[in-house]
Amino acid sequence: MTKKPKRSQGPGVMFRSLNYRNYRLFFSGQGISLIGTWMQRIAMPWLVYEITGSVFLLGVVSFSGQIPTFILTPLAGVITDRWSKYRVILLANVLSWIQAFVLAS
Known about the structure:
- This protein is an all-alpha fold.
- The protein is built from 4 helices and no strands.
- The protein is elongated, with a radius of gyration of 20 Å.
- The protein starts with 20 loop residues before the first helix and ends with a helix.
- The model has no long low-confidence stretch (mean pLDDT about 85).
């Protein structure tokens, strides 16, 4: 006979991590950042298609948006193992902000 795992008391346990101020700041900041990222990922191909009307260039823009992921993914594990997690997150967000400001101007 297998034992059933104990269930926690009520749905409030699911959001227990939000009791911590630093996590709330991180969670809300990441939420805002993701909204901006999603807007950028939608707006860029849309703008390219509106300007050029070319399906080929739309595909090029979409593919080129994935190139940094292909290149940086193998290095990301090494970087996160050797550097402070805080500094890696901070650097990634700063680079993301710079890219967004360059695209906006």
